[in-house]
From TrEMBL:
Annotated site residues (Important for catalytic activity and assists the phosphoryl transfer reaction to Asp8 by balancing charge and orienting the reacting groups) in this chain: 115, 146
Protein name: Beta-phosphoglucomutase
SUPFAM superfamilies membership: HAD-like
Species per Swiss-Prot/TrEMBL record: Trabulsiella guamensis ATCC 49490
EC number: 5.4.2.6
Keyword Phosphoprotein: yes
Active site positions: 8, 10
UniProt cross-references to Gene3D superfamilies, sorted A to Z: HAD superfamily/HAD-like, Putative phosphatase, domain 2
């Protein structure tokens, strides 16, 4: 039986990709590296330090900054990003999410969060969603970024369910790969995702009816 639904945050609960992008573009620009939206799409679901490594590689500057300088760049990006979060209110919740979380609970199924963002608690409270999940995996405890399944496995463990009893929802390819590697059923939101067990174009289609029907279909 389905026991839990585990959500990614950025791009599933609320849309912060453009805020991450603006902050990274500024910091990359200061380091003499140009990044565009297409490159940014590949950073979805990737942790802060791993994102920085990819940006430096993209600009051919992987050896130009020592450890301490890289920490400073990441810190600077985060300061800009956190400033931009001031604009986030409960209206920034993506369509259908509040109703979905409500309906999942009514069905006695648990809800979890598996975000690699260290800002997840701050974002949840800005959205007024601090109490919406039964368990939120702590990104600070996770050493490996998605596509490693670690964050989804931590969420399953915290909820007390087996991965085979859970659905994971993601908007990023690294996230879909992480869910699949964890042995959960994967739901992809948006286009251009490969290997999702169920693919939806937006959260508007993401209803409890759709999720429960999908689960039954897969277990016949
Ligand atoms: C993910 C985002 O949710 O969190 C990534 O998709 C981001 O773009 C990552 O890099 C880490 O976020 P933070 O807030 O810890 O820098
Ligand atoms: Mg995401």
């Amino acid at each position: 039986n389905l026991k839990a639904v585990i959500f990614d945050l950025d791009g599933v609960i609320t849309d912060t990709a453009h805020l991450h992008f603006r902050a990274w573009r500024t910091v990359a620009g200061e380091a003499g590296i140009d990044i565009d939206e297409t490159f940014n799409a590949g950073l979805k679901g990737i942790s802060r330090m791993e994102s920085l490594r990819r940006i430096l590689c993209h600009g051919g500057k992987e050896n130009a900054f020592d450890n301490e300088q890289q920490q400073a760049l990441a810190q600077r990006k985060n300061t800009l990003y956190v400033q931009s979060l001031a604009s986030l209110t409960r209206d920034a919740l993506l369509p259908g999410i509040r109703q979905l979380l409500h309906d999942i609970r009514l069905a006695n199924v648990k809800t979890g969060l598996a975000s690699v963002s260290l800002n997840a608690p701050r974002i949840l409270s800005a959205l007024d969603m601090g109490a919406a999940f039964d368990f939120c995996a702590d990104a600070a405890q996770i050493a490996r970024s998605k596509p490693d399944p670690a964050i989804f496995l931590a969420a399953c463990q915290g909820l007390g369910v087996r991965p085979q009893e859970a659905i994971g929802i993601e908007d990023a390819q690294a996230g879909i790969d992480a869910i699949n590697a964890a042995g959960m059923l994967s739901v992809g939101i948006g286009d251009d995702l490969r290997h999702a067990d169920l693919q939806l174009s937006s959260t508007t289609e993401l209803t409890w009816r759709c999720l429960s029907g999908f689960w039954v279909d897969k277990h016949q």
